[in-house]
Amino acid sequence: MSITSNIATTAAGIARWGLRSVLHRSGGALPGKIGLAIDPELIAHLAHLLDASVVVTGTNGKTTTTNLIADTVAASGLTCVCNRAGNNMETGITGALLEASSERRRTAGTVRVGVFECDELYTVRVLPRLKPTHFVLLNLFRDQLDRYGEIDHTQDAIASALASSPETILIFNADDPLCTAIADRVPNPRVAFGIQGATGTETSRMAESRFCAKCNAALEYEYLQYGQLGAYRCPACGWERPELEAWTHDVTLSGDGYSFCLHLPGNTADPARELALTTAYNGLYMVYNIMAACTAACALGADPSRFQDVLDAYVPTGGRMTRWRAMGRTVASDLAKNPVGFDRQIQQIKASNGRLMAFFLNDAEADGRDVSWIWDVDFECLAETPGIRAFVGGSRANDLQVRLKYASIDAQIVERVEQALASVTDEPAGDVLFAVANYTAFPPVVADLKRLSSEDTGITAPQVDQTAHGEQAAVATGDELPAPAVLDRPLRIVHLYPDALNLYGDGGNAMVVERRCAWRGIPAKIDNVHMGDELDLATADIILIGGGADRDQLAVAHELRSRRDELSAYVEDDGVMLAICGSYQLLGRSYYMGDDKIEGLGIIAADTVRGDGRLTGNVAVKTELSSDPFVGFENHGGRTFLDECEHTLGVSTVPGTGNNGKDGLEGCLHRNLIGTYLHGPALSKNPDLADWLIERALERRRSTGDAQVEALLPLSPLNDDRELSARAAAMKLLP
């Protein structure tokens, strides 16, 4: 190593000694931070310590997969260097290498294998320097959109990282078309893994992108596991899931967990390449994690015969997938930090016939400030659970409470899991409480459970939010709804392309409109129009269209251009429409995708140009449609400028936000069309905006001679305490 590297290593070693010996704290990322400050190329200078290495990345499962690989490597008699504490950025990986450097005399003569969890965006900093022998790509889902941006950005970062280390062997989840798209872009040797055959155990309405990476046509699936994972093929160009080199088959779910057979790459006649495995941990995602871990560990030289013992002994870190005994009840705790992860937890609760549950949601920087993704979680599947008791907590508890209200679940707000436990002391002791929390909300839950599991607390049930009785209880649970009015046809809510434009929980807007109609006895029906479907606007009353990733939005743009005249005629005939983010841009004359200028529909007089960086954060807009500001979250790179003839939705209350960050305006109000960058989704905390859409739709029906809607106007009031509390909480988050 160079003199600079030696100085960096020494300084980091002193910092690590001080942290452990004086402050009695773990080394954490600080030694790595100090070392990199002195020598930015320190990872490259320490990489020679390793005989082989693997970097693990992906949205979900990084920590579990990394630790399983590390345990298998260690069980095979190899020396393992690993950032087990989960410090998965450049500083944490550097810290693990520095630790190995300090112990190299003790481990001299042994094979040293590096196993490193890495944040997706930091792969571009780690791979060019570490040059790992292997790289595991688990999956790509929506996560922290305000930090990562759209998934296209994450794909670009990972592809660039791999291209910088072309000899690194890519082990990737071929069931995920987003991962396969990366594999097809890079020169690296590759090993594809996946599940062979439909499991029949888990499904999901979730999908990040089901569009072809080659031609952007909608993918077709032979079978779907969850999210966008499955056996896919493009009917237009033939792009498809590649042939699997490692796969599982005969996946069986029982009360004790999963059992399956795993075929490892290599000689198919070699019995050592076929493993019969079992795991006590439920969730099909765990099968994918295990498959990736075993494949990578064996590629690094570990003994596959050790893997089942490793699985049997595996204890998840930090309280994940853990069962506790607290206050006389079993509590199952787990982490879920994005829509697919949360949806998997919901499916497990349902499969376990769970009826006691507590969900905690924070919006700290590490979580992502945008929590609109909770509207893509399938809470509805729990609504019919007999005797359900639900609690919500965290800094965005109000948002969760509103989300569950529209799923017909009455949730009470608690500050800690201890309160939830104290509130269910009257429930049978054998019923498990499921506690699910996102990233920064999870450690306090675990800390409470650790304390409660070690003491006999005599705590009595505290006062919790009991707002959900009487009239509000009927609204929140869906019981005792008023008899529907008699109409020739229900109010038709046309949700355009929910399979493509689903990035910001926009499906929640359709839920909000439909529920607010039902609570008033207004017959309403959501009509989801997918790519390739016939678009019939003759009987449309409200059109909702959301935002999506660039390639998905481009596919919609191509389809809608052929229907521009029909859509424009609907708008000019005072048709009611709400367009969010990307679709708002699409309604203008033009917008940009990268360096390419894309022709819009020209329905509103506006152009969207490229901006320097993204406008991201909580926002509010003063508008003539309501006495209170509308609130939401914005996350867009384009800057939209309206012609003087267009009317804006309102004035942004936060400088530097809104349409373009310059003129202080937000959104567009063109007849009965609203275009806006507000999401969250837009209607969840702005019930007056939802009611404006409903009322305008009914007034339009009345103006065309539909006298039956007269009795529904003006709209009867609803109890919006929960929505308005969520709005008030959001207002406090404004800068």
Automatic annotation (TrEMBL):
Keywords for this protein: ATP-binding, Cell shape, Cell wall biogenesis/degradation, Glutamine amidotransferase, Hydrolase, Ligase, Metal-binding, Nucleotide-binding, Peptidoglycan synthesis, Zinc
Stored InterPro entries: Class_I_gatase-like (IPR029062), CobQ_GATase1 (IPR033949), GATase_3 (IPR011698), Lipid_II_synth_GatD (IPR043702), Lipid_II_synth_MurT (IPR043703), Mur-like_cat_sf (IPR036565), Mur_ligase_cen (IPR013221), MurT_C (IPR013564)
Entry's Gene Ontology BP terms: cell wall organization; cobalamin biosynthetic process; peptidoglycan biosynthetic process; regulation of cell shape
Active site: 370, 581, 679
Residue ranges of domain Mur ligase central in the record: 56-212
Limits of the CobB/CobQ-like glutamine amidotransferase domain: 492-686
Keyword Zinc among UniProt keywords: yes
Record flagged with keyword ATP-binding: yes
Binding site for substrate: 614
Pathway annotation from the record: Cell wall biogenesis; peptidoglycan biosynthesis
Gene Ontology molecular-function annotations: acid-amino acid ligase activity; ATP binding; carbon-nitrogen ligase activity on lipid II; glutaminase activity; zinc ion binding
Lineage: superkingdom: Bacteria
Catalytic activity: beta-D-GlcNAc-(1->4)-Mur2Ac(oyl-L-Ala-gamma-D-O-P-Glu-L-Lys-D-Ala-D-Ala)-di-trans,octa-cis-undecaprenyl diphosphate + NH4(+) = beta-D-GlcNAc-(1->4)-Mur2Ac(oyl-L-Ala-D-isoglutaminyl-L-Lys-D-Ala-D-Ala)-di-trans,octa-cis-undecaprenyl diphosphate + phosphate + H(+); L-glutamine + H2O = L-glutamate + NH4(+); beta-D-GlcNAc-(1->4)-Mur2Ac(oyl-L-Ala-gamma-D-Glu-L-Lys-D-Ala-D-Ala)-di-trans,octa-cis-undecaprenyl diphosphate + ATP = beta-D-GlcNAc-(1->4)-Mur2Ac(oyl-L-Ala-gamma-D-O-P-Glu-L-Lys-D-Ala-D-Ala)-di-trans,octa-cis-undecaprenyl diphosphate + ADP; beta-D-GlcNAc-(1->4)-Mur2Ac(oyl-L-Ala-gamma-D-Glu-L-Lys-D-Ala-D-Ala)-di-trans,octa-cis-undecaprenyl diphosphate + L-glutamine + ATP + H2O = beta-D-GlcNAc-(1->4)-Mur2Ac(oyl-L-Ala-D-isoglutaminyl-L-Lys-D-Ala-D-Ala)-di-trans,octa-cis-undecaprenyl diphosphate + L-glutamate + ADP + phosphate + H(+)
Residues reported in the UniProt entry to bind Zn(2+): 212, 215, 234, 237
EC number annotated for this UniProt entry: 6.3.5.13, 3.5.1.2
Residues in Lipid II isoglutaminyl synthase (glutamine-hydrolyzing) subunit MurT C-terminal domain copies: 335-441
Function: The lipid II isoglutaminyl synthase complex catalyzes the formation of alpha-D-isoglutamine in the cell wall lipid II stem peptide. The MurT subunit catalyzes the ATP-dependent amidation of D-glutamate residue of lipid II, converting it to an isoglutamine residue.
Subunit structure: Forms a heterodimer with MurT.
HAMAP family in UniProt: Lipid_II_synth_GatD, Lipid_II_synth_MurT
Family of the protein in this entry: Belongs to the CobB/CobQ family. GatD subfamily. Belongs to the MurCDEF family. MurT subfamily.
Name listed for the protein in its UniProt record: Multifunctional fusion protein
